[in-house]
Structure formats: C-alpha cells, structure tokens
C-alpha cells in the first residue's frame, strides 16, 4: 500500500527510530480504535477534542451537530490534524528518565470537506457507528431525515501521516543492568465489562449476536 | 476549591448539560491518568501529541528532550492546551445518532514557562514518574546531571479549564423505547496485565511492594 512521503509536517523529529510511514501500519492503528483527538485552532489556541471516527480507504469521517464550533472552524480554516493513540504498556526502567510507555500512535494530516449529499452522509454516519460496534447500524431504527439534517459530516482525506510505535522491553543504560532493581513491562489493555441492559425491552431479551461477538473480542 | 470562570475559551458550546467547571472534579479527572494530549501549532496546523504529565496543585508538568520541537513551539508561542480523556463506556442506543460513549474529559488552558532550576526540574521529573507509578522515583537509580541537562521541563499553570462528563445510560427518543431492540451500556476500563520482568536481576527478585500495589489497583 506504500508509504507517506516524509515532509516538514509529518517527519518525526524525536525518536526517529520509532517512526513509521507505512500506510498499512498506519491504517491498522487507526482501525484498532474509534476515538481520536481532532485538532483545531480557536482564538489562536490549538485545541484537541476526542471524537468518534470511521476510516474508509484513505479517508476519515467525523460527525457532529451542525452548530459544532470545532467542525466549523476546521472547515473554515482547512487546518486540522488527528491523533489516535493506544496505550499498550508501562515500561519500568532502572532510572527515571528511561521510563516510557509502549504505545501505537498516529498523527494524520489532510484535506477536509463537508459531505452534503444525504445518501453519502448516511453512509458515513453508518460507518462511524459501525467503527464502534461492527455490523451494528443495520440493526437499528433507521435515521430520521431531521436527524440527518442537523448532523454535519466531515470527510478528512489523509494526505500526510506518521506513526510512532513502541513495542519492546526496557532500554536502560548499559551500566545500570547490574543494579539490584526490578525493571520490566506492565502491559496495559482497554477492556469491555459485562453489558448493562437498558430498562424495558432490552432487559428481557438476549443481547444480539453482533454485540456479543464484539464484547467477546474485548471482554475483560 | 472553587470553579473556573466561564470565558470564551473554556465555555463548552456543545452538550452544555455535561459541562463542569468545578476545580475539584477537573483535578480528579487529571489525577486519574498520566497521559494527555498536548496541543501546539506547527506550520499553521494544530497538532496534539500524547505526553506523560504530572499535576501539582494548579500546575501541570511535562518534560521532553531539549531538542523537542513541540515543547519549543509551545514556549515560543505561549499557546497550548491539554486534553485528558478517559473512556468509560459504549452507550448503545436504539437509533444510530443516539449512540454515545461514557467518558471523563478535561480541556486545560494556561500559561507556560520553562523550569530551569535543577532542583525544581528534578522535583517535577520525579512527579511525572510518580504520576505513572506512585512512590516510584525514590526507589530508582538517581538521575545523572547529564540526563537532567538534556531534559526540558515545562510548567503549565492552569488558568482556564472545563470538563465534560457523561456517566449515564441510554438517552433515546421517547417513542423509541417501545422498539424491540437491545440497548444498554458496555462499560470500558483500562487494565494492567501481569508484569513481565526484564532480563537479569529483575527476573530473580520479587516485584517491589509499591509496584505490586499499583498493579493490584488496576489489574485485570
């Protein structure tokens, strides 16, 4: 699938040995989650807000209310970036500054445009819901037109990206390995706990198979 | 402990019913983690990068290499913000656009300055390590002067902040509760898995009590 060209914008300056520009690796990190930090500039300040997303090919979709100040600022300026990060471990070293974390992180740059066609909007809202729980949208009450009308969908075409991944043990100073200290990695994982049914009908029926399947993939 | 004044910068525009300006709540959300998304502007783009932090009173500390382009940009411009977010649950509704997540999130604005005094720097680097694992720093090999010299510490004084918290069940349209669909909440939790000792000495000794205590607090 190729790599993203290293430019001034996406070149990883610190920890270059962990930098990855491979498209497939970057897509895998994106697909492992459904919430990313979307950046915008407000009153001169860089602000990032966690948002649900979906990826389709080289595009990321986010949605929000048509009154959303962040989405408007992003559309007006064309300037945003998205960071998606998964924490995988605490790296416990023999000295303070060699402490680290294992993680997978991507920073994405791209071009943004608003999706205005109703059918396209519906498709991408479906994708966002299905990124959270696969195969879910088609089991739900269909979206009302008025719901669609008050929802803004933004398409972010990834034009530049980089990943940083740390997935290894402790890297201490050579002379410190003889010190009588414990060191190692404590893996970190995000897990799902047992589903809690809503009042009424859900409390009397079985959880649908596609939700159970998703739960089983990530349960504690 | 009071509240943060609502200003143009920190006023929550979307979902105001979830907005919290209470200092104690905001501090609790900060203290529940150790990695936040720190924003900076580079080449006109808002970028956010996950960084380890510590909180002491109304101040946040982050550190990095003295060559770190982000920390330099933040110091030069004085413009940054920090978002810290904990994902607590998947909220599964009867219609797509009522899907949501339970979460605790803070966005912090403030003034930044570099800490240059060696003793202060050491204290705050200790705080960052101890935010990851409480009571840890004093059990480690003391920091070398050359390590301190190549580390930059930034103090971020929180001058404005807001939190958003969602911690509840499904909010569906009134008429949708009769639909024969499952709905509910799947709680999400970040957990620690069994520690993996580094080669050599650590593989032959017990894990120190303060690390075991931390592990027990968050283990799967």
UniProtKB/TrEMBL annotation, chains A, B:
Signal peptide: none annotated. It holds the Pfam family Pyridox_ox_2. Gene3D superfamilies: Electron Transport, Fmn-binding Protein, Chain A. It comes from the Bacteria. This is Pyridoxamine 5'-phosphate oxidase family protein. It comes from Tenacibaculum jejuense.
């Amino acid at each position: 699938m190729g790599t993203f060209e290293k430019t001034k914008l996406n070149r990883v300056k610190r920890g270059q040995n962990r930098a990855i520009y491979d498209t497939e690796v970057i897509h895998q990190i994106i697909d492992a989650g459904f919430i990313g930090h979307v950046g915008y500039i407000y009153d001169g300040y860089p602000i990032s807000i966690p948002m649900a997303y979906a990826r389709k090919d080289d595009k990321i979709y986010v949605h929000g209310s048509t009154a959303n100040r962040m989405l408007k600022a992003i559309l007006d300026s064309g300037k945003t970036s998205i960071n998606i990060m998964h924490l995988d471990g605490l790296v416990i070293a023999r000295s303070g500054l060699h402490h680290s974390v294992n993680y997978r992180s991507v920073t994405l740059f791209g071009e943004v445009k608003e999706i205005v066609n109703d059918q396209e909007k519906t498709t991408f809202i479906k994708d966002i819901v299905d990124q959270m729980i696969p195969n879910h949208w088609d089991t739900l009450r269909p979206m009302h037109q008025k719901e669609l009308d008050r929802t803004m969908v933004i398409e972010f075409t990834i034009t530049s990206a980089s990943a940083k991944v740390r997935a290894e043990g402790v890297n201490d100073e050579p002379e410190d390995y003889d010190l009588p200290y414990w060191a190692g990695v404590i893996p970190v994982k995000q897990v799902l706990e047992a589903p809690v049914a809503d009042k009424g009908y859900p409390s009397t029926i079985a959880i649908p198979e596609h939700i159970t399947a998703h739960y089983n993939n990530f349960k504690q």
